[in-house]
Every structure is written in C-alpha cells, then in structure tokens.
User: What shape does this take?
Amino acid sequence: MDVTEQETELKALVADILAEAEKQGADQCEVSVSSDEGLSVNVRKGELEQVEFNQDRGFGITVYFGQRKGSASTTDSSRAAIENTVAAASNIARFTEEDPCNGLADASLMQTEVIDLDLFHPWTLEPDVATDLACACEGAGLEMDDRLTNSDGASVNTQQSVRVYGNSHGFLGSYIATRHGMSCVLIGEDESGMQRDYWYSVGRNQEDLDAAEDIGREAARRTLARLSPRKASTGTYPVLFAPPMAAGLIGHVIGAISGGALYRNASFLIDSMGKQIMPDWLSLVERPQLPGQLGSAYFDSDGLATHEKAFVDSGVVASYVLSSYSARKLGLEPTGNAGGVFNLDLDGTARDPAELLSGMGTGLYVTELMGQGVNTVTGDYSRGAAGFWVEDGQIAYPVAEATIAGNLSDMLMNITGIGTDVDYRGNIRAPSILVSEMTVAGDGSG
Amino acid sequence: MNDTQTARDRILEPTDVTQEDLERSIDDLLGHEIDFGEVFVQNIRSESWGLEDGIVKDGSFSVDAGIGVRALVGEKTGFAYCEDIRREGLGDAVAAARSIARAGKGRQGTGYKVASVDSMYGPEDPIAALDEVRKVRLLQRADQTARAVDARVKEVNVRISASHELMMVVASDGTVGQDIRPLTRLDVSVIVESGGRRERGNAGGGGRRNLDDPATDAWADNLAREAVRMALINLEAVETPAGPMPVVLGPGWPGVLLHEAVGHGLEGDFNRKGSSTYANRVGERVASPLCTIVDEGSIPGRRGSLSMDDEGSPTRKTVLIENGVLKGYMQDKLNARLMNVTSTGNGRRQSYAHVPMPRMTNTYMEPGESDPEEILRSVQRGVYAVNFGGGSVDITSGRFVFSATEAYLIEDGKVTAPLRGATLIGNGPDVMNAVSMVGNDLALDGGVGVCGKDGQSVPVGVGQPTLKVDEIVVGGTQA
Assistant: This one.
C-alpha cells in the first residue's frame, strides 16, 4: 500500500477509535497508531546470514473518565478489537483513582500547523542489493589487517513508518518517516586475546549514509586500536568522553531535569531552575523542527507544538523537560516535550578534538562505557570504561577494565572543553566532552 | 475459554487459522531448498497497574498476537512475521521467509508429534486471578507498609504486572509444541530523605505463578520493607574505595555476576562463530575447581523457567562448568545443528516478531562447603556486595561490569560501613579463576531478572551461594 493511503487509513482508524471511546462514555481520549515496515539483512564473513522482513502495526488508547485514567493497546485493528480495547481501557479507568493532574493538555496548546519536516525518503532496497552492500562494508574492514580474524557481521536495514496521534480535542497529526542504517562489528586477535568494536551510520535519507567501505574500515580501525589493552592507573585524572559517550552524559542531565524525575523527587537537579549547573560558556539547546534530522518533530506525544529553546542557557537551567502531566504536577507550563527531547545540541566554544587531547595532559580517553552505575537521585556516577590512556597529551595505549567515578553535579561543572566533532547519529547530538577530574580505577598503583 | 483447553485451541479458535494451515505452511516452506522450517504462533495478554503519590493512578492492558515464520538453510535464516493471526498474513510471511532459498522439489513435513513435557507452572490466567479491587488494594497495602516503616520515606512507587502467554510452534522436524505461560511481578521503589540527602531503594519479585495466594499480602509487605531498608542503608553510605581488592558476593541476586561473566559467553551462537572468549575450550579449566555452574529451565514456577523453549524443545538442567572445567554450551536448534550437538532447550525469543537465539533460563552456581560467616572473616579489607542494579558483558574479551546498589566495606573480617556507587569490573575467566571460597547457602533471586541480547528481552533467573573472589577492580570515588 502506498504510504499516503496508509496515512489516510490510519487517520480514519484513529477517528473510529475516538468515536468508540466517546460512545463508551469517556470524557476525554487520546489514541496513537503506528505502522512500520522494513527489511534488514545481515551478512557474516562474506555470506548472507539473515534476511528479516518486518511489518508492525498497533494502536494504543488512553481514556479519561473525569480524572481517572485507563490505557490499553493491541496489534489487532479489527472492529471487534477496537471495541474490546476501548472497553479494556474504560474498565481500568473504573478502578484507578482520581488524579487531579490527569487529562489531555489544554486544547489551546495543540499544534495547529502541519509542518513538513522532510523525514520521508524511501529506499527501494532488494535483499540481494542489501547483501552486496553489507558484504562490501564487512569486506573492506576485514581486508585491512591480518589480525582481523573474525567478524560479527555487517547489516543493512531500511524502515518506513507512519505514526498518527489524535485526541478528543479534535487534534489529529501524523508523521511519515524513513530511517536507514548500516553497521559492522569486527573481531581482532593478537597474542593478548580477542577484542571487538563496531561502527555504524544512520539517516533519514539513504544518501546521507556513509559509504559502506568507510563504515567497515572505521570498524576495523577501532577494533585494531583496542588490541593488547592494559589497565588504567588508579587515581584522579581528566577524562575525555568521545562523542557517543558524551551523548550519554548529556542524557543523564536531560533525565534529571525531566518532569517525571523532578516531581518524584528522584533527581539530583531538583529545584535547579535558574541555577548554574554547567560552566557559563555552555548551553543545551533543543531544535525540534530542523528538517531531515533523526530527532525532528513538530508536535509532541501530547499533540503540543514543539519549539526551539534552551534547557540550559549559559550554564543556567532555563527550562525543565515537561509533558502536560508532569507540568501540572509541578505547577508549571508544559514545554512540548511529552515523549522526550527533539534534536538536542550542546552549544559552546568548540575546539579541535586533537587540541582537547593535547591539552589534557595525562588521563583517560573513554570510547566505551559499560554497566548501569548512574544514580540520578544522588548524581553518583560509577561506570565501567574502555578507551585509551593519554600521556602528555598523546594517546599512549588502549585501556580496558577501567572504572570512572564521580558525581554528576561536579562532572558537569568540571567540563573544561568540548570538541567540534559532533555526532549527529542520534537525538542528542553530542561533541567530545572533557571533564577535568574524575576518579579512575584500574591497577593497584593508586 | 476454560482451563482445560490446550494452548493450541485457545490461540487458533478465535482465528481463521487451523493446525492444518500451519502444517501446510511448513510444506510451502519446504517447497524451497531449506533445511528447516518453522511457524510460531503467539498470543500474549498483559496487564499492569501503578501506584504513585498514594493513589493508583494508571493501569494498562494489552493484547499482542501474531505469527513468526522462519526458514533455515545452512547458516542462513529467512524470517518474516505478521501481526494478527490470519491465514492471509501467514501466507505472506511464508513467502517472504522462504525467499532466502531457491525453489526446489516439493516436499512435505511428516511425523508431527505433539511434544510431551513436564509442566513447570499451571495454566491459570494470573490477570484474572485477582480482581481489579484486590489488585488496587494490594498496591495500596504495599504503599502503606512502606510509609509506616519510617517517616523519612517520601515517595513510594508500586507496580504490579501480570501476563498470560499462549504459544504454539510447528516445525519441519516434526515438532508440535504448545505452552501456556503465566508471569507475574511486583515492584516497590521508595525515595527516603534525611537532612537534605535523598536515596532510592528498590525491591521486587515474582515468577511464573499466580497472585491468588494467601501469602501474597505478606510478600507485598516484605518487598515494601526491603525497599525502605535498602534506601535507609544508602542514606548512611560512604564513598567507595577504588582499585583492585577482595570482594565477597552475597547469595541470590548477585548471581547476575555468573550471568554476565560466564553465562553469555557460553551461549551456542557466540561459540559457533568463535566470537566468545570461551570458544573451542570444552574440556579446559576455565574457573576455579570450586565452581560448578548450571542453567536449569526446568525449575517449577521460577521467572526464568519454561516447560518447553520457544522451539518446542523440553527445558532441562545443563551443566556448563563442572568443578572448574568447561562442559558445554547452551543451544538452540540452529546452533545445535551446525555444531553437531542437540538442543539444550535454550532456544528463546522475545516474541513472534523476533528470531530465536540461545538464551539463558535460570543460571546459578551449585553450593560449596564454606560457612558464609567464615568467608567474610577471611577478608582483611574488601567489599561485600549484596545487591546489584544490573550488568553487561563484552563476550569477545570477556569483560563485564556490574553496579552494586547495596554494598559494604569489610574491615578485619567484619562488615562495616555501607558504600555508595560501587561498580565491579573484570574479565570473566580471570574472576572465575579467582574464586577462592564458595558458601553452602545457595539461593535463587526473587524473580526480577530481564536479560537483553541483540535487542531482545526475556525473563531470566540467577542464583549463587556466598562467594569470595580474591581480586576484582572496584570502581569508586576514593582513589
């Protein structure tokens, strides 16, 4: 089915479900429907390993009876399933308790425009073409060095999706989007054992993907660089986070200024509005309506218009990350962030990453983090890390089995540099981040 | 629908698909040159209720049903699925999955035999076992219990979840499997505050069992008290020393170390591909002789248990490491066939929309002979870790990490100050070789484990007795 026909059909489905909810007596109702289809091909050691065709469809509904709420979802969109699902949600709402903050966002806040964000660029990809691409990607990596003895394969995938959200205020919005990706995981071996690393590229448009061979070669370079790791020195050192790791760090900040964590008192940044949490030369800015980007959105999952804003302006918290529910809980206005943030940038004076490295003296350059040792209630941070030991501003040797620890409040204030090397492959578009001081643990020299 | 109906009847009856359609689909798959064809049909109903701010403010119910079709040829897999259980969707999925191989001579599947397995749980629907009023009361009870323990309790979140899964699998090797699987879980999370400092505590549990049990109230109370206890201990926690040191791991949930440090590395797929640090090492010593580690899906009622795996193979107890020597790997059908062994009943998938892989069930270490007290007494200065948030592993290098949510300093053989934010990092084989004492107090976890692999989540169990590891790198803030 053509994608615009699908969109029309899903919009009609949303209208049917809303009508059914009204018929069953709901005071308010909201519905999300999605339909995805795609292809994913994996190869390993030059041979096809898996072809997967996916086709997903489902809808979720939330009904409000006064300020009592119930939700239900299903993969079935038959007439009977609609009736049953609305009935299941309504039944739950008979037993939940009144919550004065429940209900749709104010009707006046709904997005009124339809904005084309240029998110739909279908890729007509046949399995055999995908296989050739993936083989080229993996092959270019494997042939770089004899120490690359094995592979966990390369994959190419393409997805297209239609998402429709509607509510009983009469709001009905939709997104038609595509997302394509290519990745490669290689395994290297020398006398000290095996190491793996990977690389990937992702975009709304197939033309934005890196060349298959470049992805394979980058996976190869990264894997080779990790062979024969040593332990890190135990002590207090500067830590440079590579962009994908820095995105995680920014993610913890966003988590801590999100409404859900704030109203539950589960954040180390409670009451941080107007307070400085980062150096004054840094700002965290959301740009939701950039065309063609991975995190772009013109309405959030409450139906509210998104807008550009700083969450952290010159080091100071300028906005929390709020849905209409969490805004009511906190007595604030919603920020158009139901469902999260949309295209987040760390703005500030950026330097060449090589300059950051040469300026850090002796410390750890982190290219991988492991484990879940981040406590957003206290800000305590303690994670497994791998990367490279830096001596006198030069990469000295690979490091594995290290830990880095600190408190996020201190780590954020101790940011002394950011790179020009922004990673645009996610919703949080992070550069390298240099933190002047953390506790590193590895060998027994501490 | 009643409890005496089979999973097959319950799944297929409301649809236009029959068992004959599924068998015909296998014939259609076999019309191409494949080694193995499989159709998996599933219907999962789930329900969850949440309490926050003293009120039960949300509840949700979902139905997810569909068919997954797989065609295997050599090391290749063709996979497609359809949402909804419909004859038309099944036909499309079959055509897509078999496109991995060329059309060949028509063949037919024969010898279908309904697998007979021992049931590890009852067929009752845990969602229906407690009515809505009783579920709401149970959440309120946990909330009130937690708040009554200590005035420093500021926030309480309680969630109850239950699901009822019906599955059926038909495969070209003659398999016809069907299973009805209940799963329940209760979680309590609290935040305590004292003198401007806030800490969190969590406790949870559950399994493949029903909630309609006279002990359910006492269980909810215990979880609530446990969450508060942990949070209050963390209020007193001091900075963790950083660096290598002896670590004593408590019994039960700390078995997540085995899951990460050993379990994943012993899954058949990684070993077939040679990407695991344990590849080609069967018969070698890979751990201290004190260590015997098993995976056992066939324990009644546990979270990681299954009567049969998702490929219809019966679950069982598989010895992975015996007295330190590597005995074998966990296998699904694909990897077992390629490695010339038999499936160990570890072929699991998140749902019909995901391909099966070798996965753990309940993984634990057999008890040893040491008294747990004696183990603690043997440590001059180290860390005693009794609860963990979670962990992860790089199976190629063997590196693993996990984060303690409750840990203490050991000084002169005594457990002293609680520690904050302790992370343990090491290498599976190194750490398992450094196990120097194993307690006689084997315990399995309370039933909260979720294991992720290649983007697929499945419920698992872990367990172990008290263990002493002579040296693990501890990540803390105090250098």
About this structure: Chain B has eleven helices and 24 strands. The first strand of chain B starts at residue 36 and ends at 52. The mean pLDDT of chain B is 94. Chain B touches chain A through 80 residues (CB under 8 Å).
